[in-house]
Automatic annotation (TrEMBL):
Protein family membership: Belongs to the thymidylate kinase family.
Domain of life: Eukaryota
PANTHER family, alphabetized: THYMIDYLATE KINASE
Residues covered by the Thymidylate kinase-like domain: 12-203
Record keyword Nucleotide-binding present: yes
Enzyme Commission (EC) number: 2.7.4.9
Cellular component terms per the entry's GO annotation: cytosol; nucleus
Keyword Transferase recorded: yes
Record-linked InterPro entries: P-loop_NTPase, Thymidylate_kin-like_dom, Thymidylate_kin_CS, Thymidylate_kinase
Listed Pfam families: Thymidylate_kin (PF02223)
A GO biological-process term: dTDP biosynthetic process
Protein name in the entry: Thymidylate kinase
Keywords: ATP-binding, Kinase, Nucleotide biosynthesis, Nucleotide-binding, Transferase
Length: 225
């Protein structure tokens, strides 16, 4: 596979236990096996000072205002901005295990009512998106779609703060809202994540190839609007 002038920025998104980490690992191995420079960036990045604060929160050992934790998630992504752009400029493709879209929907889903949220109120999707405006925009967002029942049947479900049925239902509705947003509607590539690992991997790989094709056509990395 020929390397593009710059690397492709590929975000892997989806509901909890949809298999994002597994698919990212398989993708990284496959890209490298085909001599395509690639690296993996997970969000939140729990190794940074801000990431360590987020990790403590996610393990439910501390309490923070919902707006404050959302801004920490965004700050964690801004910590990585310059590194992401430098890596892409070097010709290396970056796989993002979660990105701004998870940040937006998981924060907005904390409201007591489901989507659609008030357009400009606290923890609306509009408010939650605003701190991420200007971050690198993915060439493609691969969304791993899985039913709530199938996700709940997978090992480890329910161990972290957000893995509760009502919360996951709101997250699903808000992801659907995000995928319909005209600002980045063209970026989404939906994969049925309910099949076996190999079937899902092949469908995801098709999305990655499309993302690389788009990167070749776009010399400059776009910004989130």
């Amino acid at each position: 596979m020929a390397s593009p002038t710059r690397g492709a920025l590929i975000a892997i998104e989806g509901l909890d236990r949809a298999g994002k980490s597994t698919q990212c690992s398989l993708l990284l191995d496959r890209l490298r096996a085909e001599n395509h420079p690639a690296t993996l960036q997970k969000f939140p990045d729990r190794t940074t000072p801000i990431g360590q604060m987020i990790n403590t929160y996610l393990q439910s050992s501390t309490a923070l205002d919902d707006r404050a934790i959302h801004l920490l998630f965004s700050a964690n992504r801004w910590e990585a901005r310059d590194s992401l752009l430098e890596t892409l400029a070097s010709g290396t493709t970056i796989l993002l295990d979660r990105y701004i879209y998870s940040g937006i929907v998981f924060s907005a889903a904390k409201q007591s009512h489901p989507s659609p949220s008030p357009p400009h109120g606290p923890l609306s999707t509009s408010w939650c998106r605003s701190p991420d405006v200007g971050l690198p925009r993915p060439d493609i967002v691969i969304f791993l779609d899985i039913s709530q029942d199938a996700a709940a049947a997978r090992g480890g479900y329910g161990q972290e703060r957000y893995e509760k049925a009502e919360m996951q239902a709101r997250v699903r509705a808000l992801f659907e809202e995000m995928r319909a947003d005209e600002r980045d509607k063209e970026d989404w590539w939906v994969v049925d994540a309910g099949g076996d690992v190999e079937e899902v991997a092949d469908a995801v790989w098709a999305g990655v190839q499309e993302g690389i094709r788009r990167a070749k056509q776009r010399p400059a990395v776009r910004a989130i609007e």
